[in-house]
Specification:
Layout lengths: L4 E5 L3 H12 L2 E6 L4 E5 L5 E5 L10 H4 L6 E4 L3 H13 L3 E2 L4 E3 L2 E8 L3 E7 L2
Parallel strand pairs: 1-4, 5-9
Antiparallel strand pairs: 2-3, 3-4, 6-8, 7-8, 8-9
Helix pairs in contact: 1-3
Length: 125
């Protein structure tokens, strides 16, 4: 079994889509409606769906509830790759929590994507 997709609810689909494309190199496969739903894909085939909050799924996102209840993470092949990704995210306008540092036996940083999506980027030996 393999994880196929994640659907993240945000107030501004276009801004979040554009951030993940520019900061993380995801490919935008499709945008439905006027930024109603965007489907992105990473180089391993995982789809990241960015959509507006849907009432049938609770009707909320992290901005409207005012707190993060989850985060998503990317794993990279080296400490240097984490440092380079930090710069790419910073240049793309990511809201940085801190610079890369040693945590739980690895090297990582956290940032926020538009929509207050907490993103972890790390390397573990």
């Amino acid at each position: 079994m393999r994880l196929n997709h994640l659907d993240l609810h945000v107030p501004d689909v276009g801004a979040t889509r554009d951030f993940f494309v520019s900061a993380f190199g995801l490919t935008a496969l499709e945008t439905r409606g006027v930024d109603g739903l965007a489907i992105l894909q990473d180089n391993a085939g995982l789809e990241l769906v960015i959509s507006r909050p849907a009432e049938k799924f609770g009707g909320a996102d992290t901005v409207s509830v005012g707190r993060n209840t989850y985060h998503i993470g990317f794993i990279l092949s080296s400490r240097e790759a984490v440092d380079a990704q930090f710069e790419r995210v910073r240049l793309a306008g990511g809201e940085m929590r801190q610079a890369p540092a040693a945590h739980r036996g690895g090297w990582l940083f956290y940032c926020y994507a538009p929509g207050k999506i907490l993103v972890e980027v790390g390397w573990r030996p």
